[in-house]
Amino acid sequence: MTAFQTVMEMPLTGRGESFAPANFAAKVLPISPRNRHERRQLNWVTHFGLGAMWGTAFGIAGRAGLRGQKAVAAVFAAVYTGDVLLNTALGLYEPTKWSGRDVVIDVVDKLVQAEATGLMFDRMRDV
């Protein structure tokens, strides 16, 4: 879980812990967590990897000359679309069955992640 999800979104929405990252990792890697503790660990490791992927996407956007909100928009569009399509193809997501609330939560969580990553990426480039 991201800090935003843990501290703000989940308490506001009442949504429980999500294991979507762990489910993805278990689907594409030869890993089978045996209990909740192992599943939670896999979730954290996968979140770290996904964060690195967001950073890589911002690096590519930066090389293309994008910064600020233009970079956020480009990266969010590419990464979010890829996330939904890949997880749907793997049978992990069923976005056609999501409620409007579910869609808003998913988009906001990932947009906040894109904004925070973009902000940090731009700050690090300025150093």
* Nearest-integer average pLDDT: 92
* N/C terminus separation: 28 Å
How many helical elements? 5
- H/E element sequence: HHHHH
Tell me the number of structural domains: 1
Shape: globular
Count the beta strands: 0
Q: What is the radius of gyration?
A: 15 Å
Query: How would a textbook summarize the main sheet?
Result: none
How is the topology of this model organized?
Blueprint: H1 3-13, H2 20-28, H3 36-63, H4 68-89, H5 100-126
Helix pairs in contact: 1-5, 2-3, 3-4, 3-5, 4-5
How would you portray this structure in words?
The protein has helices at residues 3-13, 20-28, 36-63, 68-89, 100-126. With 127 residues, the protein is mostly helical. The model has no long low-confidence stretch (mean pLDDT 92). The protein has one domain (17-126).
Q: Can you give keywords for this protein?
A:
127 residues; mainly alpha; 5 helices; 76% helix; globular
TL;DR?
This protein is an all-alpha fold. It has helices at 3-13, 20-28, 36-63, 68-89, 100-126.
